Amino acid sequence: MHLDRIAIVGAGMAGLAAALSFSRVGIACDIFEEANDLVEVGAGLQMSPNASAILREFGVLEDLEKVWTEPREINLVSGTSLKKLAGVPAGDFARKRWKAPYGVLHRATLQAALLAAVKRNPLCTVKIGTPIRGTLPQAVRDITGTPYPLVIGADGVWSNARASVPDAPQPDFSRNIAWRFTIPLEEAPTWLARDCVTAFMGPSTHLVAYPLKEKAAFNIVAIASGISPGATWEAQASESQRGMLIKQFGGWNAEIIALLSRPARPTFWPLHEVTSGRWHNGRDVVLIGDAAHAMMPFSAQGAAMAIEDGFVLANEVTRAATLPAALAGFESLRTRRAAKVKARGSFNRFAYHARGPFRIGRDIVLSLRPPQSLAADLDWLYGYRVD
C-alpha cells in the first residue's frame, strides 16, 4: 500500500518525527500547528539509544552530537546522604552495547533540529497558526480543500484530534508535579557531576540533574506530589508553591534544599498520564505520542516513545495491505511497547520514592548490583529497533 500525502496535526516532537518517518518512504506530509510561532519551550530531556538510532536515520544525529552531552554514567544517589548507590554506564559503553549514543540536551535543541530537517525536506510542509477543530479528516479538508487518506493526531496530552477516535484515551492527572529550572554551570555546586545524569532518591520525592552543554547550564527536575493547576502543561510557581516544594523535600540533604531554594522563577509542570483506550478509528485517523500514551517521566522515555511511534507507523503503512490493517498493526505493536515502558516507570517510581524498610532494602540491593547487570536490565528498552 502506498499513500501520496497525509496530514499531521501538531508540530511537536511526535509530529515532526512522524513527518520525517513518512518522507523516508516517499509519502508527503502536511503538518498543521495551532501555535503562531514554534518558540523555544520546555527543559532538558534524555535521548536514549532506542531514539537516537532513529535520529540517525533522519540525518539529524550528527549535528546533535556536536552540541549535546553524552553522560559517562547514569548515577543513582541518596538524596539524604549524597552517597552514590549504583550507576549504569553510558558514554562509549552505550554506543557499543546498544549501537547508538545516549545524550542529554535541551528540548528546544531537538525540536529545532527536527524542524530544520522537515523544512529542508521537499515532501514536508509546516502550516503554523492553523488550529484544527472538528471531526477528522473532514476538518482538515475544510481548511485546505485537500482530501487526506490518513490524519495523524500528534497534538499532545490535551489533543483535539482525540475526539475523532471513539473510546480514545483521556487525560488523567497523576498527582505529581515536576519542578523544573536551570542554573549556570559556573554556579552549580561541586557535588553535581558534570559528566553524568544523576538521580537523587528520597522518600516520596526525587530529583534528576544533568548538564546541558549547549545552554552552559545544569538542568534540574524535582518530582513531588502536588495539586493540579488545571489544563496546562507549564505554569510559574508562586512563593507558596515553592514553600510546598521545600516542605516536601524537608528531610533531604541541606545542600539539595539550598539548591531548590535558589531559582528566582521556577516552573512547575503538572504530570498527566492518559487512560487506556483506542488509538485509531479503524479508517483514517490515528493518535501518536502523548495524545495516545502520555506517561510519567520515571523512565525518561516520553520523547523517545513519540519518535518511535512515527517510525513504526510509517513502517506499518508501507508493509500492510490496507490502511485499516496498518492502523491495527501499529496499535498492537505500540500498546504493548508503551505498556512495558509505563510498567518500568512505575517500578522506578516505587524504587526512587521508597520509604522506611523498603528504602533500606533498595539501597542494599543497588549496592550489590554490578553496573553491567543494571545495564542488561535495559537491553529491551535501549536496544529496541524498528525492523
Walk me through this protein's architecture.
Keywords: FAD, Flavoprotein, Monooxygenase, Oxidoreductase. GO terms for molecular function: FAD binding; monooxygenase activity. This is Salicylate hydroxylase. Its cofactor is FAD. The protein has 387 residues and is α/β, with parallel strands linked by helices. The chain has a domain at 5-69 and 102-171 and 274-347: FAD/NAD(P)-binding domain, CATH 3.50.50. It has 14 helices and 15 strands. It has helices at 13-24, 49-58, 61-65, 91-98, 107-120, 138-144, 239-248, 254-260, 290-293, 302-319, 323-352, 356-368, 371-376, 379-382, and strands at residues 5-9, 28-32, 44-47, 73-78, 84-89, 103-106, 124-127, 151-153, 171-184, 196-202, 205-212, 217-225, 235-236, 267-274, 285-287. A hairpin with a 2-residue loop joins strand 10 and strand 11 (205-212). Helix 10 (302-319) runs antiparallel to helix 11. The radius of gyration is 21 Å and the shape is globular.
